[in-house]
Amino acid sequence: MDKNPLMQKRQVDSKKCPECLVYLAPDARECFSCGTRVREADAMGIARRRVNWKAYLYSVVTAAIFGLYLWWAFFKDS
Ligand SMILES: [Zn+2]
Fold first, then answer.
1. What sign does the CA torsion over 33, 48, 14, 30 have?
2. Distance from the CA of 4 to the center of ligand 1, in angstroms?
3. Is 24 exposed, middle or buried (0-12, 13-18, 19+ CB in 10 A)?
4. d(Cα 69, Cα 48) in Å, to the nearest integer?
5. Each residue's pLDDT tens digit in the chain (78 positions)?
6. Burial class of 45 by CB neighbour count within 10 A (0 to 12, 13 to 18, 19+)
7. Do residues 39 and 70 touch, judged by C-beta distance below 8 A?
8. Is the Cα torsion angle 33, 34, 39, 45 positive or negative in sign?
9. What is the CA(23)–ligand 1 centre distance, in A?
10. For residue 36, how many other CB atoms are within 10 A of its CB?
11. How many whole angstroms from 11 Cα to the centroid of ligand 1?
């Protein structure tokens, strides 16, 4: 029988926010401190981030507008 505590299944009674590292309840879906949306804890006890599609979409749109601006500013007349 292996008694090594590191090999036993981790008893998850808390998890940490990936952003500000405060302890959260194991079933918390959002960090009460910084507002980061979190998922279940990983093997290190750090909560996984939820994919923030709104922020992702916003960054893609911003990059597209910036690229269009670069094209307009430097390549339009050439
Ligand atoms: Zn946090």
1. positive
2. 32
3. buried
4. 35
5. 556 655 555 555 789 999 999 999 999 999 999 999 998 888 888 888 887 788 889 999 999 999 999 999 998 776
6. middle
7. no
8. negative
9. 8
10. 16
11. 22
